[in-house]
Amino acid sequence: MKTIKFDTATKFVILIGFISLFSDMTYEAARSINGQFLEILGTSATTVGIVAGLGELFGFGLRFVSGYIADKTKKYWIILITGYLLNLFSVPLLAFAGYWQLAVVLMITERVGKAIRTPARDALLSFGTQKLGRGWGYGLHEAMDQLGAVIGPLLVSAVLFYKHQNYHLAYAMLIIPAIVAISILLYAKYLYPRPENLEFKTTSVATQGFPRKYWIYVLSVVFIAAGYADFPLIAFHFKSKSLMSDADIPLFYSIAMFIDAIAALIFGKMFDKIGTKTFLVAIFLSLFFAPMVFLGGYYWAMAGMVAWGIGMGAQESIFKAEIAEIIPAEKRGTAFGTFNAAYGLSWFGGSALMGVLYDISLTGLIIFSVISQLIAFFVIVFIIRKYKN
User: Fold this and answer.
1) pLDDT value for 205
2) Residue 194 neighbours by CB under 8 Å, 6+ apart
3) For 183-241, how does the pLDDT look when each residue is reduced to its tens digit (9 = 90+)?
4) CA distance linking residue 241 with residue 300, whole number of Å
5) Is a pLDDT exceeding 90 seen at residue 108?
């Protein structure tokens, strides 16, 4: 029987993928039930929208600072460990939250932890993905990442089904994948103390700031983020309209995460072949998730979650591959941080607005979502025409 051999860079990407797999099992499981948990604790759709947006504001806005520090200090592993500890261990503490105010603090803490560790992780991945192909490397990582996002919601769905909607037990059990993720992280640090050595060294022209193409690209992502409803608001809708049982809501999220994983692999391969044009396909396929999710019944909602998952798969894979192609290695931490800060600010504004619109006009929410993504589509068209890619 032939033994499959992986080069060092591939092993590194897969190892980081396993960290993300178990960490996603932890916090994505929590995110699949956070919306309905807040509804049970007595909040409104406006509050859920603001909380989701505020979490993303901290979760993405702080990434600029974290990315800058990562580039300046090169202390990638220390930043990763600090971020993962906050990101993961705030989740099981939700088991002790009896008031929505405490739950909100812990949910935001989880996002802060993710903010601290993500730019450093993305920069480390860029070192390993050069030899694999940017699109395929980030797509492979996202697929492993989302495998955890499939398993986690399924686990909490089972707990809610068999333990009569015991949300506190569902949160408490997530301590197990959190510990596994941290253990693998420490092992990876031991094996790869200087992962930047995995990338071929190339000569780049020293410039101040980032190229114009990068900023136009960021602009397109800002509109995508603004129009993309966060899952807590979607879960709030499912719960408040009684579209499905409590156990079905995380199951729907799990389906979306599975689609996310498959989409990341497909779009990753497409990106390595056709470049930026891949974004147009992704945006087109996910464009109408909002009317399906917010206006449809059970099966239309499921179709909407599939479209939502396709968009998320693109956002978490080829978006990052594009940055790794545009920006030289020594500036990538800051580039990823700046990109994510802009994404988070837009996500915060869009989530808060959609939460308000949900209470005022569901039609207005849907129009805002679709128009925002259409604007992003045409910005990408402009990039393709101007830069011939």
Assistant:
1) 47
2) none
3) 999 999 998 888 777 766 554 444 567 888 899 989 998 999 898 888 878 888 888 88
4) 14
5) no
Residue 317 in domain? yes
Residue 2: inside a domain: no
Taking alpha carbons only, the member of 156, 138, 182, 129 closest to residue 30 is 156
End-to-end CA distance of the chain: 43
Which token pair is 50? 């603001």
pLDDT tens digit string along 143-161?
Answer: 888 888 888 888 888 888 8
Position 146 in a domain: yes
Domain holding 357: CATH number?
1.20.1250.20
What total of structural domains would you count in the chain? Answer: 1
- Return the pLDDT at 206: 47
Residue 358 lies in a domain: yes
Nearest to 148 by CA among 35, 249, 26, 16: 26
Would you say 326 and 338 are in contact if contact means Cβ atoms under 8 Å apart? no
pLDDT category, 105, cuts 50, 70, 90?
confident
Burial code (b: 16+ CB inside 10 Å, e: under 16) for 164-186 equals eeebeebbbbbbebbebbbebbe
By the 10 Å C-beta count (0-12 exposed, 13-18 middle, 19+ buried), 367 is classed as middle
Has residue 3 got a pLDDT over 70? no
- CA angle, residues 113, 117, 122, in degrees to nearest 5: 145
Q: Which domain holds residue 261?
A: 8-196+210-387
Structure tokens belonging to residue 145:
């990442």
At 332, the amino acid letter reads: R
